[in-house]
Input
Amino acid sequence: MIVANKETTSLDNRLRNRQWNKVAKNKLILVLLLVTFAVFGCNSKCLLFKCALTLDGEATQLEGDRSTPNKSHLQGIVARKKVDTSGRYLSVVLRTWHEDAALAFVALESVVNVIDKNLLEIVVVTDQESENIVRSALFDPIIAKFPEIYERGGLSFRVEPMLFLNGHIQQKFSKMMADTYTKGEYILHIDSDCVVTQWQDSCFLEYDKPINDYATFESLPKSVHVWKRGTEVFLGIEEEIFEFSRLNQHVYPRELYSVLRNRAEEVHGVSFLESFTKLGLVGRDKDLHTMDPSSSLLISDFNLLGATAFHFAPDLMTPRDLTNHKSPWRPFCIAQCEARLMGSSCCRKWMETQIRIANEGKPTKVHADCKIDFAPNDPCNCAEIK
Output
């Protein structure tokens, strides 16, 4: 009986020792993982395991020294990672001209009211011909309303020389040079007829990177296909099957702009500025038809930026395929009115309405689509819009 008790006690001790050793081993592994994670950075490129960690345990495959997103994974889930932007500086670039200056005041007002003023830089860009009106109707009133931003250097005015006869191609050129006159980690482009209705990381960021939305040209209306050839020729892509200007939430990492310009110079053998003349670039479909289509090229700045990230700098943005609406939903933080279609006065009223309902916690619209929430006899009613 005593022997049996000793054997039982010995067995119990062995079991306890084995369990303790297992726990100790697990703790040691956990400590090593935490140390490794701390050494290589919480932002995630885990060189020991040749993978990039995400919050939900999925991995991103590495190609050489660069990581490329696992597209089947990114397209199939809703991101659950909360990105902390508390220490990041955002540059908002508004490229405008004299006819839209008064309307753009509403746009900039919405930016300042929604985004943390201490982490915000606003750059108003215009041309020499529009300088006086844009300054008096937009820039000076913004300074008067938000002097604290101007006093700390967060609000600046940039006047460009008239480099091109076509104003639409001029503003596309200036957008693709945005990193040279801003200092933010990210650059957000908004138009004069846009308002920022809210700020959430999930509007713009996924996996700690700006989102690069795209869809196949095949899935889009024929009217969108006009941007395809310009992207292929300008960037030297044999065939571009994706369109990269799907949503109006255009946020890009500042590093991307120099990649785009360097790529264009490499392909065409001239400076980025000279490539515009060499290729006879235009900015609107109607401009292409008024010139000789065989010697002119229609480009989209946002298509060029998106395609550059997708093909030549996949580490900089998180790709999201919107083809057939299979991509995870994300909130819309910017609403646009299309002032050319609806007129400045109508757009201003619509934009102010979107701000009001956003402040009330109600969902805003992405675009003013002629179903405006006004009385039937209001001058902004669709039937009245010419």
